[in-house]
Amino acid sequence: xxxxxxxxxxxxxxxxxxxxxxxxxxxxxxxxxxxxxxxxxxxxxxxxxxxxxxxxxxxxxxxxxxxxxxxxxxxxxxxxxxxxxxxxxxxxxxxxxxxxxxxxxxxxxxxxxxxxxxxxxxxxxxxxxxxxxxxxxxxxxxxxxxxxxxxxxxxxxxxxxxxxxxxxxxxxxxxxxxxxxxxxxxxxxxxxxxxxxxxxxxxxxxxxxxxxxxxxxxxxxxxxxxxxxxxxxxxxxxxxxxx
Length: 243
Hints:
elongated; 6-stranded antiparallel β-sheet; two-stranded antiparallel ribbon; 10 strands; 7 helices; Arc Repressor Mutant, subunit A; 2 domains; alpha+beta; Chorismate lyase
């Protein structure tokens, strides 16, 4: 790839440098943790100041595309799994649509008495057992998300279903329940010992914690879902459109 900037172009130099960097980081020679050329060499090659180059680099660092370490250099960040909140799908469906292979590391089904919070959400009593589904999932090389789902008794799930299938496909195909609406709460937190052991990380490591409240077409609650994501493996993006 030819590394050059058009100094006669009306496009600002830092914008040209940014676009050039976006192309560079896709090249094979900069994958697998290999460093980009150092700032001095790259600035000299492009015939721009280090300040101008750093402006472009900072943009890509901010976007999570580059990682810069003092005394080491700049490298391409590992690709993050991402999820969007618009037109949401089940986790399996979304990863399949993105061509990302997913492995189930653990799958546990049990019947439990709901906590007061869950019972209030479902508008049921705490002495009525509900189905609890726990799944540890990730790429073939390791887990990055731990899901805990609780289901309203109205769903008629028995616990004998093949939960390797997409969850909302099971509800729709087998029980004629369509998951229509999702309301979510997302926060950053630290992994406790239990979550750390599941996600193969250290206690206290940053994780993304997401609560999802799922409703059917009549806006009746059907699922209360908790998701714990490794922060260095997942990014959750939100797309909004002004009315």
